[in-house]
Amino acid sequence: MPLTEPGTVPTALADDATWWRSAVIYQVYVRSFADSDGDGTGDLRGVRSRLGYLRELGIDALWFNPWYPSPFADGGYDVADYRDIHPAFGTLEDAELLISEAAQLGIRTIIDIVPNHVSSEHAWFQEALAAGPGSPERERFWFHPGKGPNGDEMPTGWVSNFQGDTWTRTRNADGTPGEWYLHLFTPEQPDLNWNHPDVRAEHEDILRFWFDRGVAGVRIDSAGLLIKDPELSEVPEVVAPGQHPTEDRDEVHDVYRSWRRIADSYEGTRVLVGEVWVPDAERFAAYLRPDEMHTAFNFDFMSRPWDAAALRTSIDLMLAAHAPVGAPSTWVLSNHDVTRPVTRYGREDSSFAFATKRFGTPTDLDLGRRRARAAALLTAALPGSLYLYQGDELGLPEVELPREVLEDPMHFRSGGVDPGRDGCRVPLPWRGAEPPFGFSPADPAAGVTAAAPWLPQPAEWAALTVQAQEADPSSMLWLYRQALRIRKREQALGDGPMTWLPSEPTALVFQRGDDLVNVTNLGPAPLALPDHDRILLASAPLVDGMLPPDSTAWLHRLA
Fold first, then answer.
1. Are the beta carbons of 173 and 198 closer than 8 angstroms?
2. Where are the alpha helices (DSSP H) in 80-184?
3. Spatial CA neighbour of 356 closest among 348, 364, 366
4. Which listed residue, of 71, 78, 395, 487, carries a Cα 20 to 30 Å from 324's Cα?
């Protein structure tokens, strides 16, 4: 049972219906955040022990990657049971305590929902395998006979999001080859059939289960993939809007209208946040109509190179896309899937694309760190909500891990050429001079040692621990804390209008409200600042009164 009355929210959180429009939301990858019991894996008690740190950082909400029971074929995005917590992370009571304790500190909780698929160990899928062809249990998934005389060919040639095939063949009870089942990701993640009423009813009940426990919202994974063409048509060479067989089909909006009605039936504003990879701006905005999702992730900005023209184009594109539906944009530099900014911005190609990730890509970390600092202030100044992936506030770089410790299926399904996403998931360094840097509890004086973290931490992270950075006013952590305090204090920041100001083509200069100006210098030379009466914050010291390259300053000027 929930620890509080189902459907209610603490008074401290109940009086701001539009909190999500300007919120700073911190992404927690539980496995790598903080370990409370010394087994090398982060857990919910570890998060609870660090809530004070998160409050001091200045965030408004926590977004948790999947914390459910899972075989971890895809980092927890293969969910076996939506109404429980993975034993390595704790218990359902731990989750309820975390939601409640965070709320008492003024921090809301957002959880991940993965509606496109479940784990192959989910009870429904195991029942479907046991029931056999033609059974009602199989109708909840996409089981289909194969093509060819003996059914040996896959039903379609659809390509997996993780590269490779999207169909896996089953075996009948007598050992003969059986039907095929669809999985847009790994074979351990069978796709659900969203045309089936059981699937829709189950997910609506899951929403209620967690809203009853006080969560303030859900982030919807792969939100555009739920509906498939029942005719199993191939992907045409030219795809008309809404006609891709597996992506962004028009019927998906019925699902989110239903979910929005459920969210709106609860006290306080419970938000729906979509992971929507849709390149067409108009179709992207359709997910944000007033009766569907509240916000959606902005992947376009995150993927752009460190270039003034490219970033300005993205900013204009996203603001224009959101304007017709009155939704705020979201801004993010990275997440649990993406190369960390310090590393990415130091590369010759500072854009991001999954298809181009390779081992041994060189980077200039000093350059990347300067740009990441500048980007932190730039994104925090843009209108809308801000997402911050754990560790970016410490300036952690991507870690190129030894192949033998990698777990990410993207690495293995690429034939080993893609390093995968584990490099941005390395456990956080909290304190001390050597691994595990306080991630796991240890007391060498008392003979208590912790298990090695599930992914190894670089020794050079000793300079990047929370403890080290709290003592250094020039650190990335100090910069983030100052920026988020100013963002909360200045009414012009967060949701609201933005006006571009005249500038050099290599700069991004815009005004928020009546008196706050952001200046980001992406050019090779120092930049003269516009008139101002004081500097609120800068990512780097001025040089002879000018803003150095790869830097951002927030200015206050008389209205």
1. no
2. 92-104, 123-131
3. 348
4. 487
Q: What angle do CA 164, 224, 241 make, to 5 degrees?
A: 95
Distance CA 455, CA 35 (A): 13
Look at residue 347 in the predicted model and tell me its pLDDT: 96
**Encoding tokens for residue 296?**
């959606």
Among 289-293, 438-442, 500-504, which is the least confidently predicted range? 438-442
Question: How far is residue 2 from each of residues 81, 86, 111, 206, 270, measured CA to CA in Å?
Answer: 17, 18, 16, 14, 17
Closest to 182 measured CA to CA, from 172, 197, 168, 195: 168
pTM over 0.90? The answer is yes
Q: What is the pLDDT of residues 318-372, one digit of tens each?
A: 999 999 999 999 999 999 999 999 999 999 999 998 888 898 899 999 999 999 9
Helical pair 252-264 and 197-211, crossing angle rounded to 10 deg? 30
Phi, psi dihedral angles at 27 (to 5 degrees): -85, 125
d(CA 210, CA 43): 19
Q: Which two tokens stand for residue 247?
A: 């992506």
With tokens 């504003």, the residue in question is: 269
How much is the pLDDT for 2?
Answer: 58
The helix or strand, by DSSP H or E, that contains position 556, with its residue range, turns out to be strand 551-556
- What is the layout of strands, in order, in the sheet containing 534-538? 498-500, 507-512, 516-521, 551-556, 534-538
Structure tokens at 347: 């590369």
SS3 content of the chain, % helix, strand, coil (to 5): 30, 15, 55
Looking at the chain, the number of H-run helices and the number of E-run strands are 15, 18
The answer, yes or no, to whether residue 10 has pLDDT greater than 90, is no
CA-wise closest residue to 231 among 153, 148, 142, 118: 142
Q: What is the pLDDT of residue 383?
A: 98
Say what the pLDDT of residue 227 is.
97
Tokens of 415: 């034939």
Q: Which of 128, 149, 126 is nearest to 137 (CA)?
A: 128
The string of pLDDT tens digits covering residues 93-128 is 999 999 999 999 999 999 999 999 999 999 999 999
Report the alpha-carbon distance of residue 553 to residue 539 in Å, rounded: 6
Among residues 387, 389, 386, the alpha carbon closest in space to that of 398 is found at 389
- pLDDT at position 416 is 85
